[in-house]
Design goal:
Layout (H helix, E strand, L loop, with lengths): L8 E4 L6 E2 L1 H14 L7 H7 L4 H11 L7 H15 L5 E2 L3 H10 L4 E4 L4 H10 L8 E3 L12 H10 L6 E5 L2 H10 L3 E4 L16 E3 L9
Parallel strand pairs: 1-4, 1-6, 4-5, 6-7, 7-8
Antiparallel strand pairs: 2-3
The protein binds 2-phosphoglycolic acid and magnesium ion.
Length: 219
C-alpha cells in the first residue's frame, strides 16, 4: 500500500516521538511530591502514565501515592513552576529525528506538532532543543477543547495546515495518537521507541512502524 501520492503534510507527536522527556517528568514530579511531603513514584510508573496530558499525569500520580484529590489545587501550580524551570534539562532528541525531519522537509511537506503537553512548555522545549524551525504550527493539549485520543485536535491541526486529513500523516508513539488518527482519518505512522502505557505499540495497527523517524518510507 502506498500513500505517497496523497501525502501533503505531516503532524508529529512530541513526547516519546520527537523528544525523550521521561527524565523531565521524573525530575519535576519528584520535586512536586517532595514539596507536598509525599513519597516519590517510580520511573516506570511515570512512563506508563505519560500520554494523556499533564493534568492527568498529576492527578494519577497523587492518587497513586494516596494524596487526596483536592491536593491537585496545590500540586498543579507547583508542577507548572517546576516544569518551566527544568523543561528540557533531562530530555533528549531521539536518534534519527533530525534526519527524519530533514527528509520530510526535503519533500516540501509542511510539518506541525500536536502534543497533549500544554502548548507553552511544548513550544519552549522545541525551541530549547533547536527543533522549532521545522514546524509551521505547534499545538498543545490546552489549545483545543479536547485532547488526543479525541480526533478534534488532529482535525483542527489539519485545518491550520490547510490539508485534508486523508493526505496528512500522523506520526506518534502511543495509542492516543493511533485512536485520534483513525478517528480523524489521518494515515498513521508509529514509532516503536516511545511511551505507550507499558504496552507494545507494535500490537496497534498502522501504515508503518519505525524504530527511527528517518526510517519512514515516503514512497
Ligand atoms: O504530555 C503528555 O501527556 C504526552 O504528550 P504527547 O502527546 O506529546 O505524547
Ligand atoms: Mg507521545
Amino acid at each position: 500500500m502506498t500513500h505517497s501520492t496523497s501525502l501533503q503534510a505531516c503532524i508529529l507527536d512530541l513526547d516519546g516521538t520527537l523528544v525523550d522527556t521521561l527524565g523531565d517528568f521524573v525530575a519535576v514530579l519528584g520535586r512536586v511530591l517532595s514539596d507536598l511531603g509525599l513519597p516519590p513514584v517510580t520511573r516506570d510508573f511515570i512512563e506508563r502514565t505519560i500520554g494523556k496530558g499533564s493534568e492527568h499525569l498529576v492527578r494519577t500520580t497523587l492518587a497513586h501515592v494516596g494524596g487526596a484529590p483536592a491536593l491537585f489545587n496545590r500540586a498543579w501550580p507547583l508542577y507548572q513552576q517546576h516544569y518551566a524551570a527544568l523543561n528540557g534539562q533531562h530530555a533528549a532528541v531521539y536518534p534519527g529525528v533530525i534526519e527524519g525531519l530533514e527528509l520530510l522537509r526535503s519533500r516540501g511537506l509542511p510539518l506541525a506538532v500536536l502534543t497533549n503537553k500544554p502548548g507553552a512548555p511544548a513550544r519552549e522545549l522545541l525551541r530549547r532543543k533547536g527543533l522549532n524551525h521545522y514546524f509551521s504550527h505547534v499545538f498543545g493539549g490546552d489549545d483545543f477543547e479536547r485532547k488526543k485520543p479525541d480526533p478534534l485536535p488532529l482535525l483542527k491541526t489539519c485545518e491550520a495546515l490547510g490539508t485534508a486529513p486523508s493526505a496528512t500523516w500522523m506520526v506518534g508513539d502511543s495509542r492516543n495518537d493511533a485512536e485520534a488518527a483513525n478517528a480523524a482519518g489521518c494515515p498513521l505512522v508509529l514509532v516503536t521507541y516511545g511511551y505507550n502505557h507499558g504496552e507494545d505499540i507494535r500490537a496497534v495497527a498502522a501504515l508503518q512502524h519505525v524504530s527511527r523517524l528517518d526510517e519512514v518510507r515516503l514512497d
